[in-house]
Amino acid sequence: MNQLAEFHSIQALGAALRARRVSAFELAADALRAARAYADPNVFLHIDDDLTLAQARAADQALAAGAAGPLTGIPVAHKDLFVTRGWRTTAASRMLAGYVSPFDAAVVERWREAGAVSLGKLSCDEFAMGSGNENSAFGPVRNPWDPERVPGGSSGGSAAAVAAGLVLGATGTDTGGSVRQPAALCGVSGIKPTYGTVSRYGIIAYASSLDQAGPLARSARDLVPLLDAMSGFDPRDSTSLESCDGAPNAAGRVQAAFDAAQAGFQAGGERPLAGLRIGVPREFLNEGLSAEVGAAVEAALRVFESLGAVRVDVSLPRTRLSIPAYYVIAPAEASSNLSRYDGVRYGHRAAVYADLADMTSRSRSEGFGDEVRRRILVGAYVLSHGYYDAYYLQAQRVRRMIADDFRRVLTEDCDVIMGPVTPAVARRIGDNRQDPIADWLGDIYTLGVSLAGLPGMSIPCGFGGESGRLPIGLQLIGRYFDEGRLLALADRYQQATDWHQRTPGHA
Fold this sequence. Notes:
Blueprint (H helix, E strand, L loop, with lengths): L9 H9 L5 H14 L6 E3 L2 H16 L10 E5 L26 H8 L3 E6 L33 H8 L5 E6 L5 H7 L2 E4 L19 E6 L2 H11 L12 E2 L2 E2 L4 H14 L10 E5 L9 H16 L3 E5 L7 H16 L18 H12 L2 H13 L5 H26 L2 E5 L15 H6 L5 H6 L3 E9 L5 E8 L5 H14 L11
Parallel strand pairs: 2-3, 2-4, 9-10, 9-11
Antiparallel strand pairs: 1-3, 4-6, 5-6, 5-12, 7-8, 11-13, 12-13
Helix pairs in contact: 2-3, 5-6, 7-8, 7-16, 8-16, 10-12, 10-13
Family: Belongs to the amidase family. GatA subfamily.
Keywords: ATP-binding, Ligase, Nucleotide-binding, Protein biosynthesis, Transferase
Subunit structure: Heterotrimer of A, B and C subunits.
C-alpha cells in the first residue's frame, strides 16, 4: 500500500513526519513502488531507488534532529526539463537520450535543500513544445481521469503524477501556459510566478524570455511552501530578479505575502473578499469557449461573489493577437537555443554522414521530433534576412501592447483577473495529429499572461465532458509579484468548494 495515499496535503504529511508517525524512508519506498506499478509507464522517465532513498534517509536525520522544514520528507518529482545529478535529463527527446547532468538546476537544489525527496524525472512534451504531452519521444502520457485523453502539456507528466497521487508536488515550466493548462486538464492546482522570480538556471531552454518554473500540487495551500522554496535571486541567471516590488526576492517572500493576505481576509468575517474587484475579460467568454467550461467558470465566479468580491467587466482587446505574437517569438528563441544541439559536443550524433554539414543535418533530423523541427523552421524563417522586421520585430511590439493592456486593466479596473484556462476539456490522444495548429489555438487564454510576464495560476472548478468526469480549471491572473495574494484567493475558494479534493476514481 502507498502510504502517501493516506495524506491529502503537504501540511498533513509534514505534521505526521515531524510527529514520527511515518518515516521519510518508508514513505519514499512505498511511493517508489507505487510509481513503478502505476498504470501509465510513461509518466516517469527515470526512477533511481538509491538516489531517492538516500534523500529520504537525510530527511529522517533532519527530522530526528528537529531541523525539519516545511518540505522535509515530502515526495516530489521533477519535469524532465530540469537538469539533475544522477537522474537522466532528456527533455523527453532522442536528442538527449541517456544524458546525465553534472549539476542540478537551481529549483532542484532549492527543493532538495528544503528537504524534499525526489522520486525521479517526469515526462513532458519534447523540449517543452506542445500542449498535450504527446510529443515526448518516449510515448504520450495519459490523463489519470481518462486514459484515452491527454493530460495537457508540456508539463503533462507533472500534472498526471500529482493527480494520480504519486507525489504531493512536482515542478513544471510555463512558457505559454504549460503549468496552468495541464493543471486544469488534470484537476490539480498550478502556478506560474512572475517572470524572473524563480531562477531558470539549469532549465533546458525553449524560449528564454518566456520560460518560467512553477510548481503543481493538489491545492493552493500546498503550492505555497513549494513556490516559496523555489523562489529567490540567483546570480547564475541573468534574468533573475534581486527584488520584487521592493521586497527581497528570497525564500519567505511568498509565504509572508500569503499570510498577510489571509490575515486581511480573516478580518472580513463572513465576507472575507469584500471590496475585491474581479475583472472578467469579455474576450475570454467568446464563441470559442465550450458551454461546459463557461458554465463552470461562471459558477466559480459566483462563489467568489458570495465571499464578497465584485465582478467587473473588462476588456483585453489584443487577446487574439497573443497567438500569432507568441508563435513568432517562442519559435524564434527556440531556433536559437536549440542550435547548440549539432552532434558535435553533446547530444545525438548520426552514425552515418558524409561531412560536417551532413553530420549536423542528419543528427538534428534524427534527434528532434516533428513538433520541435516545425518550431525550429518557423523560428529560423522569422529571424531570417528580410523577414525579421516584418515578423519578429512586429511580434515584439504586439507583446508590449498586450502587456500594457494587462497593466491598464489591473491598475485601473480590477485587482485580479479571472477566466477559463482552456476553451474545452481534455481532448482525446491523437485528435490533433493531422492539425497541430489546433493545439496552438487552444492556448488563447494563457499566452497573454506569459507574454506579459505576469503571475497566473489554475485551480479546479468543475467537471465536464461526455462522462462528466473531465476536470475544468479556473485561471487567476494577478499583478506583478502578486503570487502570495493569488494563492490566498485560491485558498479561500478552495475552503468553500471541494473540487480540488476529488481524485480519479473518487470524483
